[in-house]
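4.2 Preliminary Data

To establish feasibility before requesting continued support, the project team ran the inverse folding procedure on a target of 271 residues. The structure was first converted into the token representation described in Section 3, and no sequence information of any kind was made available to the design step. The complete token record follows.
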């Protein structure tokens, strides 16, 4: 209790796995260097081991051992995945849930308190659904997905395997469609399509993906979407594209494969 809070936090992180930031590391820790702005730390870090790129040149004496790899960032990411203790484990079906009898749940499905699963849903094996999740009628969720607290999956949503949807995201809400009448009043256009999310997709918190007017809004395999992103009706996003926070993509636009879209970018419709 006598340590400053920041020091306590650093100790807690370090004690949990001995993997540290290069500037906070102590003896026994493993860290990495990929961004050149942190290069001065290679000469003063207290880490025992630093993962670096093959081509890194060392011009002064260092006190740590180096592991040289092709891509230090990727290698360190692999290491974090090996030692991560943040995996959510199966916890079963809590008492305070509502699951309609017509829905089918696979093996080792977990459902948290106050979550609701509607009619004719199909939930795959090893799916974890946290507290206060709403899954509307005719939704399908593939194996090994994690649905965090507060997520809303509207009807007919299709979620592939190995997907992660973070808290308070909304999948399948109505697209923004209105047609003016002769009086200039805007009449709602029914949105009767759905959202299709393929395998290995991760969606950050507070992101909205609208259902299609007709057909499907499509998020393809391996797409990673950050927090606070708006994806409108009938958008299609190609495999392994990355979308950072606060991006807005207007209706019927198609994004190709392996694209990177930076934070707060806005993309107009029908492109």
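Position-by-position output of the design step:
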């Amino acid at each position: 209790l006598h340590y400053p809070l920041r020091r306590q936090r650093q100790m807690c992180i370090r004690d949990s796995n001995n993997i540290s930031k290069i500037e906070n590391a102590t003896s026994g820790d493993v860290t990495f260097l990929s961004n050149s702005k942190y290069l001065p730390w290679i000469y003063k870090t207290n880490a025992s081991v630093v993962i670096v790129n093959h081509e890194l040149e060392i011009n002064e004496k260092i006190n740590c051992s180096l592991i040289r790899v092709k891509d230090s960032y990727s290698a360190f990411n692999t290491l974090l995945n090996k030692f991560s203790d943040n995996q959510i484990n199966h916890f079963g079906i809590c008492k305070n849930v509502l699951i309609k009898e017509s829905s089918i749940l696979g093996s080792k499905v977990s459902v948290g308190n106050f979550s609701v699963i509607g009619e004719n849903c199909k939930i795959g094996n090893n799916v974890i659904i946290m507290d206060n999740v709403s899954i509307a009628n005719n939704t399908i969720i593939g194996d090994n997905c994690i649905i965090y607290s507060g997520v809303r999956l509207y009807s007919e949503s299709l979620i592939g395997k190995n997907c992660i949807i973070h808290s308070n995201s909304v999948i399948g809400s109505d697209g923004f469609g209105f047609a003016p009448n002769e009086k200039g009043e805007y009449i709602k256009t029914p949105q009767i399509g759905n959202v299709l999310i393929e395998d290995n997709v991760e969606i950050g918190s507070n992101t909205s993906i609208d259902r299609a007017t007709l057909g499907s809004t499509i998020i393809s395999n391996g797409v990673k979407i950050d927090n606070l992103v708006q994806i409108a009706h009938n958008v299609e996003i190609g495999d392994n594209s990355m979308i950072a926070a606060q991006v807005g993509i207007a209706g019927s636009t198609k994004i190709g494969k392996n694209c990177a879209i930076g934070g707060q970018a806005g993309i107009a419709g029908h492109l």
